[in-house]
Automatic annotation (TrEMBL):
Domain Anaphase-promoting complex subunit 4-like WD40 positions: 288-366
Signal sequence, renumbered to the chain: none
Statement: the UniProt record of this protein carries the keyword Coiled coil: no
Region spans: Disordered: 1-46
Recorded name of the encoding gene: Aamp
Taxonomic lineage: Eukaryota, Metazoa, Chordata, Craniata, Vertebrata
Protein name: Angio-associated migratory cell protein
Residue ranges of WD repeats: 50-92, 93-134, 188-215, 317-358, 359-397
Gene3D superfamilies (alphabetical): YVTN repeat-like/Quinoprotein amine dehydrogenase (2.130.10.10)
Protein location: Cytoplasm
Assigned GO CC terms: cytosol
Species per Swiss-Prot/TrEMBL record: Fregata magnificens (Magnificent frigatebird)
Pfam families named among the record's database cross-references: ANAPC4_WD40, WD40
SUPFAM superfamilies: Quinoprotein alcohol dehydrogenase-like (SSF50998)
The keyword RNA-binding belongs to this UniProt entry's keyword annotation: no
Amino acid sequence: PSADDLADEMEDVDFEDEGAEEPDAEAWETEDDEGVEDGMEAQDDSEVTFSLHSASVFCVSLDPKTNTLAVTGGEDDKAFVWRVSDGELLFECSGHKDSVTCAGFSHDSVFVATGDMSGLIKVWRVDTKEEVWSFEVGDLEWMEWHPQAHVLLAGTADGNSWMWKIPSGDCKTFQGPACPATCGRILPDGKRAVVGYEDGTMRIWDLKQGTSLHVLKGQDGHQDPLTCVASNQDGSLIMTGSVDCHAKLVNSATGKVVCVFKMESMAPKAPTGEGEEAESNSVESLGFCNVMPLAAVGYLDGTLAIYDLSTQSLRHKCQHESGIVQLLWEESSAVVYTCSLDGAVRLWDARSGKMISEYRGHSAEILDFAVNKDASIVVTTSGDHQAKVFCVQRPDR
């Protein structure tokens, strides 16, 4: 048959019908997650699959002390604490009434906190599985535990950052500009926090005094909302990432911008309105290497940029086929992990810029992931309603 005949035959096929089947297929897939996606996603490199969520799984954290427990939160308004070794459920963090977008363990793994989009935050004692505290704030943007104390910090859409002692609930607020506090991080000294805002400003707060030590705005700040912040191991340097595609390196003691990393090859953003999402790019995630003066920046267009901090120059560009959602450095080596919208986890050698390995198993985008301390496992969460545990330990590393 000629190409034209084939084209005619194609026209006879009624694609509408197939579309109509889809909702059923999806409902069926949640009951039996084996086999349905076989055609599309035969490869599954994971060791354990946790499938108690019934919608997209937005966040995951590992317990810092033993790295044996994970907490995941999802669009089904549920959060679960489960064992990484076999996916066994420990307990459900019940009572949320909106998507659980934040979840994490305290520094000593005694408590686990879960937060939903509407601003309901709950804290559970892990050993007794009992809720010990809850509080309601405005729409929640981010939440983080203090690195040395039972103290919880969270940022909300009204621009405030909140700090509570757990479980007493003693509270302090840090008033930002009248726009969402989009990201935040407590610095390693435990005395200061850096918070980024939707108006492009960044503040360094003194947690004890409740005062702002430095404010970066205007030329020093970003032109668009901040998406992520990170600090190096001793907290002397902060990096901020934004929708404006810039990453800024800031001296945390002086509040001065040390340098700005811009992607040279960025196509200029089309000067159009709402409808032009396809054109946009932004910094989605960033982080510092602990063992070399390197920093990594992950972009929505799939670029992983490795910058050399000593020369303040671009060292490598590692290209992904789809957007990077998050990146993490291995604790004691120059290896960067990325997860992306194509559902894969990749390990990159930051010294050479080469990919070390790639792990697949999700049939939708990965939305969050965590790496354990000795870099032997990665736990991922995805739009396919599942969390997965991948074993990434390799004898040659």
